[in-house]
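queue> pop job 88
queue> type: inverse folding (structure -> sequence)
queue> payload:
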């Protein structure tokens, strides 16, 4: 729990430094993308800290491509 809170505070601190600079330059799309990536990364890191099973993206690709591969072979 304490590690998760530390990670969350770290990400909030980074956002507090970066978002005002982006807002000053009126880069709204970059703010949205930055926020999405920060939240996504924070969720993944906190999940790893708490030993949550995170699936491998390559397994999803292999699962979706398997029927297509079987069709051509």
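queue> result:
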């Amino acid at each position: 729990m304490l590690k998760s809170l530390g990670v969350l505070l770290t990400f909030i601190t980074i956002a507090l430094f970066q978002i005002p600079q982006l807002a000053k330059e009126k880069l709204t799309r970059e703010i949205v993308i930055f926020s999405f990536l920060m939240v996504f990364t924070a969720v993944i890191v906190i999940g790893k800290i708490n030993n949550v099973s995170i699936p491998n993206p390559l397994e999803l690709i292999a699962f979706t491509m398997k029927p297509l591969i079987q069709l051509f072979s």
